[in-house]
Amino acid sequence: MAVWARPFLLQPDLQSLIPNPVETLSDTVRRVDEDRWLASRFAPADVRQRLIALYAVNYEIARTAETVRAAPLGDIRLAWWREGLDEIHAGKSPRAHPALEAYAAAHRTSPYLEASWSALIEARGADFELAPFESLDAIIRYVDQTAGSLMQSAIAVCDAQFQAPAFVTSAARAWGLTGLLRAAPVWAARGRTLLPAGSSAEDLRIVVRAAYAEAHEVARDLPARVFPAVGYVALTPRYLSASANPPSLIERQLRLIVASATGRL
Description:
The structure is a single chain. This protein is mainly alpha-helical. It has a single domain, classed as Farnesyl Diphosphate Synthase, CATH 1.10.600.10. The chain is 62% helix and 0% strand. It contains 14 helices and no strands.
């Protein structure tokens, strides 16, 4: 029987759902990346802390295009994050930033994350381009390097020895492409259309459905301990529904609990 075929039976940390009047790094991640935050609640406290540090750094890198519009300035900011992470992995003290300080405390001895950050930061340079992606394949490569790199790192946080390239490829594409579809109005407000000429949102949805179906199947072989790093992928079909309103918090919580209880994404 595949490991994933057994129910996860993981219990979320309900105490951590109680609001804190002073925003912590965890609160920030919950505010800006709630689905990953919700999945992280199923992890033991030490793993949860490491996931939060990972997601906090990812948020700061991802929002560069929101705070800096000019490509040269964006490149400088991305270089600052790249150098800051490299310094931590080299054993140096972190730069004065809450996300880097938390990351240093959680991942100073995690050299296996370096390659993932390098690919992710390089891909984020595309956020400053004004033209659409040149092809659907270019969009997929972007998602592989952003959502894919982050998911692989999160899995490594849960189990440094476990490798699941086939799952990460399909699951991250499903989640990342769905995210781009959801963010289309935001990009439009910045004057940019992501889709290449001749392509439509439905073309992207077709890719998402195929990727999610593959991830759903491959997930059977994943161990339960990596669920906190990937469980949010179970929300993909609900977000992909073009005619429906976004799922509520309680609906997302219930879907994650069901995914954990049944061992199925």
